[in-house]
Each structure stands twice: as C-alpha cells, then as structure tokens.
Amino acid sequence: MEQHLFQLLEAINKNANLNQKKMADICGISIGKVNYLIHDLTFGDYIYSEKKGRNISYFLTQKGIDFLKTGIQAYHDKKVNIHQEPLTEIKQAVILAAGTRKDFNKPAGLMEIDGITLLQRNIDILQENGINDIVIVTGFKPDAFEAFPEFNHYQFVHNPKYKWTGSMASLAQAHGTITNDFLLIEDDILIEERAIKEILSHPQRDCVLITNESGSGDEAFVEIKNGYLHKISKDIHQFNRIDGEMIGISKLSYEVYSKMVEEYQQKNKNPLIHYEYMLLDISRHYNIGYLNMHNLVWGEIDSWQHFNTVTEKIYPMLMRKEAEFREIFIKSHLMEALDLAYEDIEDIQPFGGMTNKNFKVVIKGKEFVLRIPGNGTESMINRKEEKFNAALASNLGIDTELVYFNEETGVKIAELIQDAETLTPKMTKRQDIMELTTAIFRTLHFSNLKMANRFDVFERIDEYERLMREANGQPYEHFEDARKQVMVLKGIYQDMNFNLTPCHNDALPQNMVKSGENKVYLIDWEYSGMNDPMWDLAWHAMESDFSPEEEELFLTLYLQEDVIPLEIQQRMIMNKIFQDFLWTIWTVIKEAKGDDFGTYGTDLLARCRKNLEHDLIREMTYEFKK
C-alpha cells in the first residue's frame, strides 16, 4: 500500500488535473483503490481538492510535500525479495484473549461497545473476509466466555500459566490447532474493518500492521529497514528513526510461526517474552514485512480510561469513517463496471437479500440495482452459469435487462423495475396475482430454452454436505433421520419419467416483483438451471404458505386443467421435501460462516419431516419397499 501511496502523491505532484481513472492507470491499481487512497490522504491532510464544474484537481499540502520528500527516497531504495513465496489465502485466525484485565474483571474482548462485544465485532469482520476457522486463546477468566453461546462453535485453547507468561506462551499454546498461514489479533483491539482487508491482501505472507504513533504512552515502536521489520521496542531511546507503531494485528506464515514456537520452546529462557519480540528474533534470519496504514482509526481497551476514550471518541469516528469507505467501496464497483466518474453516482440505498448485498443506485438520474455477492457464495454458485441463464430470462422478458455482470466476482448491475412492489406471501394467495405468477412460470417452463446447467438436487445435497463439513457446520437435531428417508425417496423419484425444463429454482415470493397492474418479474437467477418444473411450483407454494385449496387453484391455473394428475401431486410433495432438506443444509453452511437466520433452518427441517409423513409419501414408500 505504501508503494501506491508514494506513486499517487508523485502523480498528483506532477499533474494536479489527473482524473482518478488516469491515476489508477499510472499506479497500476483499481479505481476503487485510488478512491481509498485519495480519501485517506485527504483525511490525513496530505492533499486537498478543488472542484471546477465536473472536474476535480488535487494538490499536495505542505504536510504532503514533506511526507513525499522524506519517504520517496526510502521507497526507491527498497530491494526486491526474489525468494518471496506466493500469497496464500488466509482461512484461519488466532485471537489472543489470555491477558489479565483487573479493571474489567473479564477479558477485554468481552467488553461491549454499542451493544456488541469487541470480540464479536472482530469475528464478524473476519468472517466477512472469508475466515471462519477461529482459535481463541484464553487465560484470565476463561469461564466468562460461557455466557456467550455465539462463541461455542469456535476452537478454544487455554494458557493455564497466563499469570506468569507473556503473549508468546499463549500463541504457542495454539500450535496444535494451526494448520496454515493465519491472521493474529489481540482481543483488546478496535480497528477499522479495512485494516483487516488490507493486511489479508498484502503480498507478503509475513507482515505486521503498523500506523502513526498514537501517543498512548504504551506504544510498541517499529523501525523498518530495507522494506522489512528491523526493530520493535517500547523504549524510544533505542531508535535511530521511528517508522510507526505496531498495533496488534499480524499475518504469519505457518513456517515462520513454527520457527517462533520452536525458538520459544527449545531456546528461550524468558517465559515473559511477548510474541512481537520472538517475531523480531526470527526476523534476523527471515524477512518479516509490514503494512503501514496512515491515519488509521483504532484503539485498544486495557483499562477503564481506554474504554471511555474508545467509546466516546474513537468509536464514533470509526463508524463515520467506515460508512464513508463502505460508500467508496460500493461506488468503486460501479465506476469500474460502467466507466463512471465518482460524481455520476448520485445516491445509494440498501436493499434486502439473504445471500447477497443489494443496493438501489441512482446514476445520472437513472435507477439501477447493484448486487454484491455475500460471504461464502463463491463456493456455492457458478456465476458463469448464472450470467448465461439470467440473460435467457431477460430475453424472455421475465427479468429486467442486464447492464453488467462480472463472472469472476458475481457483481451484477441491472435496470431497476419501475413501480416495483416485491410480492409477499399474503399477496401471492390472491387469484389475480396467481394468474400473473403462473403465467411467468409457464413462459419459462414452456420456452424450450436450454440453460447452461442442470440443477440436480441430489448432486447439490452431496456438494452442500461437503461444504457443511468444511465449514464445521453442525446439522440440526433429527437431520440424519430425515436424510435416510430422503435417500429412499431419491430412488422413487429418479424412476419417474418427466422432462427437464428451464427453472428458476428459488422462486419464493421475495424474488418476484410486480410492476404496475399486469406485469411480474422473476429476479435473482443464482440457482437457476434445467430441472423438474414442479420444483419451482413446490417452492413457491411452500414459501407462500398456500393452504391445500390455494395450492389446488395455483396448480389448475398453471396446468390450465381442472383436475391435477396424481403424478403431479406426487412430484409436488417430493420436491417440497427435497428442497426443504437442501436449504436446511444451505442454512447450516451460511450460519457456520457467520450469518444469522434465526429459526429459519430448523423450521425448514421441521416442515421437511412433516411432509415425509404425508399420505402420498407413505403410499409411494410402501409400494417401493414391496
């Protein structure tokens, strides 16, 4: 990041009239990254801007000129480490929560700020960045964590000698649980979420996070030499120069961590040593990098004085800054996708969405919907197939026009439906709405189009169960009993003879949007594919909570027949069972990754088990077993 910071300041210093797209080209980074840096430099009073019409010019302040003058030569003198190993995706984190906090009489991470514990906030940020394997090292008051059931599915290790040892002993205690590169966080840290994102994406596998000196009186000062960690100390008199303050967040490779543990267990004679100094010892032989984030909003909570400072001053500032960067993050997606200027994006408002983050955006007076995929969706959804299928739906006229779709990230921009009214279960029970919804299903199912993939529920069950195991998800009670019965039905269902058609496969009312009096759109095609059309009808009927009479009317409107064939009835109830079972597993996966769906998953499984007792299922199972 520091390299790009200097490059950007150099570029601005040479030409104040560069637009952000040109800055991105010069620095070799995205427009979104330029936005981050411009905001950060402005916030820190390194640059200022002047707007003339639609054009913005940027200028260095005296502080910015001084910073550029003293830092640029050091950057150009850095040497390339040709032996640097490739970046490894971080999936594990260790949170050190063993230290004594006499002021609080509990671990600092359990202190609440704005209704949420410090520990939970940091875990939420980790999970938002794909880290779900979390190890918490306890020492002082370990029983205090029992009052927080939300932490039950994380790994805990205990340092029984926390009173007489430093933080390296606690970190070494986690050795048996660590399997790869990981992120190390101290439990008393409150920090901007972008800091976690930046250090995870930093190209060096071993690096410490540093920032400007805080002036707290308890700083761990850092000196950098030739681009790597050179010195750490709380004694300012030991430094030729101070490059920043170490915060308490580091990214460590498994190899370096193993060296630290080996050094501590076999050679160290001081049990009070902290991990920072053990890391410094290792840096004599191995390059330990750094990430210097200027003007970072952060704080630590070691005492009531710290707590009051954090809650009264630092946290409100952090919330404002995170909101600003969240807006920049959203705008950067739009700018890169549609080649827009920052000022072209006039408004952003959040929408709902169980899997994704959706936003209504206004661009040059026109309204669109931006979708940014949620946590963990990359392993569950094939975006290339979704793009192909969504385009088919748009061409059929049953969804709005796709403006942009990124197959790699899943970011999607579509036209906003005018006079939009999202259907509710109550609305879908009306006959006039049923006529619209069944018409859209008929248009899709009878289109004779070929989607890019097949949605095979049994393949999905196998895949989701694998993902559930990987995420350490815990199935609900009675899951295994239901699974055995579902597998019996699998044999019956696969012997049936029916044609596969294009299907939406997630046709709950919230994915249907009414526009005016006579038009309904079917949106969000993530799970689409060739399937039994009864899947769509069964899911829609269940999520609309149709009574038997309402479901009969719905099916007669779809079939355009007064009598519903027995096979249709059988396929309807079987598909209800299969999808409730499948989405139960989906919910377990999502919850293991940090989402909270309340009783949704257990309700699905309960409905699945109830339908397994349906008369039609009993009859089919009896015949099959004969």
TrEMBL record:
Residues 93-213 form the MobA-like NTP transferase domain. It comes from the Bacteria. It holds the Pfam family NTP_transf_3. Gene3D superfamilies: 3.90.1200.10, Phosphorylase Kinase, domain 1 (3.30.200.20), Spore Coat Polysaccharide Biosynthesis Protein SpsA, Chain A (3.90.550.10), Winged helix-like DNA-binding domain superfamily/Winged helix DNA-binding domain (1.10.10.10). InterPro entries: CcrZ_PhaseVar_Mediator (IPR052077), Kinase-like_dom_sf (IPR011009), MobA-like_NTP_Trfase (IPR025877), Nucleotide-diphossugar_trans (IPR029044), WH-like_DNA-bd_sf (IPR036388), WH_DNA-bd_sf (IPR036390). This is Phosphotransferase.
